[in-house]
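User: Hi! I'm working on a homework problem where we have to compare a predicted structure to a textbook description. Could you give me the structure for the chain below?
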Amino acid sequence: MGIPYALKASVLVMLVVQPGWRSVAGQCIRSEDHQEASECCRQKPRIPKDIAHNCFKENNEKGNLGPEELMVCVLNCAYNAMGVMNEAGEVIAEKYISSLTGLEGSMVAVVTNAAKSCADISADIKRDIENVESSCNLYPTMYQICVTQLTTSNCPAEHWTKSPICDQVKAGAQPC
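Assistant: Happy to help. Predicted structure tokens:
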């Protein structure tokens, strides 16, 4: 059985578009602008490139995963490879934080606070995914979405891209 459509759509939009956006009357981010919107808060990747590449290759070779399921499995693989999960498949915030490299200045505090806040709602994340069928553990994906949302919502000014699309994101526009 696959991931339900509503969750697929949510995961894909959250991973690609990095929301955290609130509804603003008359504004929405068009699909052709989602890439730009996802880059409004400039930040270093949280998963080392070699791990991401190896996990993508390993899971893509299975050949039976749709794009959303593939992303879920890649994140699960990457979090395991980074050693940031416990035996129950939950992210350990302290290990996640210590695995981050290349963060500088105020971004360190923003991502650290986001990681801790998302760990604090671990029970909620587990409850939300407990009845969802997936080829791989959904917890790392939902944790990553949480960290991304909080990081984007609290993005330091020096990391924020000034553009009309990013102004819409900051104002709370949602994807169309």
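For your comparison, note the following. The chain has a mean pLDDT of 84. The chain has one domain: 35-171. Good luck with the assignment!
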